[in-house]
Design goal:
3 helices; alpha+beta; elongated; 21% strand; 5-stranded mixed beta sheet
């Protein structure tokens, strides 16, 4: 049975079979989720956030996820390489830390430029 996953903030959707991981779905639709361990729950780079209303659309966390994420699971964080889809859901892809730092610096520079203008 096909399930639709929507990736935010890029607003891309894809229909996948139940049991597909979020990472597999993201790769198929062209959404980049960083990973170094190739889906073995070792690097923690592929964390995504799932809203509380959508947590039921994923199979329960694997033991690896429980060990790696701990309390973050309660906040909706999941490892995209381990989280398997069983219903319709939206997944928020966190902003890359380097891009976030650059964006914040550019915003500060713009504020300074506006102040001196």
């Amino acid at each position: 049975m096909q399930k639709v996953i929507t990736f935010l903030p890029m607003n891309k959707s894809i229909s996948v079979q139940s049991g597909t991981t979020i990472l597999q779905a993201a790769r198929r639709v062209g959404v980049r989720i960083p990973t170094r361990c190739d889906g073995k729950a070792a690097c923690l780079m592929c964390k995504v956030k799932v809203g509380q209303d959508d947590l039921h659309a994923l199979l329960p966390p694997t033991e690896a996820e429980k060990r790696k994420l701990g309390q973050s699971l309660e906040e909706g964080m999941r490892l995209s390489c381990q989280a398997k889809v069983c219903g319709q859901l939206s997944v928020h892809i966190p902003e890359d830390p380097l891009k976030a730092a650059i964006r914040k610096q550019l915003e500060r520079q713009q504020q300074e430029d506006d102040w001196f203008a």
